[in-house]
Specification:
By secondary structure, the chain is an alpha+beta fold. It has two domains: about 5-205, Aldehyde ferredoxin oxidoreductase, N-terminal domain (Aldehyde Ferredoxin Oxidoreductase,  A, domain 1); about 230-344, Aldehyde Ferredoxin Oxidoreductase Protein, subunit A, domain 2, CATH 1.10.569. The protein is built from 13 helices and 15 strands. The protein has helices at about 25-30, 35-50, 100-105, 145-155, 165-170, 190-195, 215-230, 230-240, 245-250, 265-270, 275-280, 315-320, 330-344, and strands spanning about 5-10, 15-20, 60-65, 80-85, 90-95, 110-115, 120-125, 130-135, 160, 175-180, 180-185, 200-205, 285, 295-300, 310. The chain has a six-stranded mixed β-sheet with strand order 2-1-6-3-4-5. A six-stranded mixed β-sheet has the order 8-7-12-9-10-11. The chain has a three-stranded antiparallel β-sheet with strand order 13-14-15. The protein starts with 6 loop residues before the first strand and ends with a helix.
Length: about 350
């Protein structure tokens, strides 16, 4: 692995300094993937600094990707975000698919470590080695959809991860949203971004991750894609999305019903909010994350006067706004999902 490829970007928002660090091949091999690398980086910080408070300048927000991200290898598009969680006060991690992760990798960086806290709203722009901290006062208060739309006009073809009003107001379960309605939604890391006054990270790269044996790699990629395309799970996920598994998971007892106080629910009501029903009624198209042969993403139409086209809910969202609260009204679930994505 060549040294120039294994770079880490370190940004301190308190003094607005930007530095690069090299990651050793040994670290990358031992702590493989975005999750492993982030755990290593955070563990080293805790050993050095001791206890770190979630809403403090010492709490680093770490964006990382893995060695396959940005290549054609299937299911490799995810990026990871890590920090001390304001929700749990311990290690927090979230991940999201889409296109942001691969684009970050193509800037030449394996990760971005963000320290400190800005005195005013900012966003970080990374275009290969051109890294800038820019004023985001005009974006503060806007939804994630509005923020992405504005920044895409300013930096065409860039990929964006941002927060909405929930993160700005330090809601402890706030998410980080990218590529429309894709969410790094666990452990409240959007609130950490909000504390740092960091509205968004914008990435645009032109570097292809180097592959040592291209012919062998392409062979493995082809075999992996073929296996995925022949999978029955792929067919279900493509047709019906992750919520296509709702009925089966309810039968297995895996889906929360009335805060797990009920073991089963009326089958017809479960069907009313399933991926199969969504496909028959409101689905307008499916979409793929980068390098994914499945295409489980949903674009749906809200059945109201506006006929608004929005991101469709995942299984977890259908469960949270459906079975968990005994709600079998699909339209309210679609609206709640849209509002959660918008406000982060």
């Amino acid at each position: 692995m060549e040294e120039y490829e294994a770079k880490l970007l370190k940004i301190n928002l308190s003094n607005e300094t930007i530095k690069e660090a090299l990651l050793s091949p040994e670290v990358l091999k031992k702590y493989i993937g975005g999750s492993g690398l982030a755990a290593k980086l955070m563990y080293d910080r805790i050993k050095k600094k001791g206890k770190i408070e979630p809403f403090s300048k010492e709490n680093a927000l770490i964006f990382t990707v893995g060695p396959l991200t940005g290549t054609r290898f299937p299911f490799s598009s995810r990026y990871f975000v890590s920090a001390i969680s304001p929700l749990t006060n311990i290690w927090g991690q979230a991940s999201s698919g889409g296109f942001f992760g691969p684009e970050l990798r193509r800037t030449g960086y394996y990760g971005v470590v963000i320290e400190g806290k800005s005195d005013y709203p900012v966003y970080i722009s990374i275009e290969d080695e051109n890294v800038e901290i820019k004023d985001a006062s005009y974006l503060w208060g806007k939804t994630t959809y509005e923020t992405q739309e504005i920044l895409k006009k300013e930096i065409p073809n860039a990929k964006i991860a941002c927060i909405g009003p929930a993160g700005e107001n330090l809601v402890k379960y706030a998410a980080i949203i990218n590529d429309g309605g894709r969410a790094a939604g666990r452990t409240g890391l959007g609130a950490v971004m909000g504390f740092k006054k960091l509205k968004a990270i914008v990435v645009k790269g032109s570097k292809k991750p180097p592959i040592e044996n291209v012919e062998k790699f392409q062979k493995v990629v082809k075999e992996s894609i073929t296996a995925a395309m022949n999978s029955s799970a792929r067919e279900i996920l493509h047709k019906y999305g992750t919520s296509g598994m709702l009925e089966a998971l309810v039968e297995l007892g895996d889906t929360p019903i009335k805060n797990f106080t009920m073991g089963e629910w009326d089958r017809e009501k479960v069907q009313n909010i399933s991926g199969q029903t969504m496909a028959k009624t409101v689905l307008r198209k499916q979409y793929h994350c980068e390098a994914c042969p499945v295409g489980c993403g949903r674009i749906v139409e809200l059945p109201n006067k506006e006929k608004k086209i929005v991101d469709g809910p995942e299984y977890e969202t259908v469960a949270a706004f459906g079975t968990l609260v005994l709600n079998d009204d699909l339209v309210t679930i679609l609206k709640a999902n849209y509002m959660c994505n918008a406000y982060g």
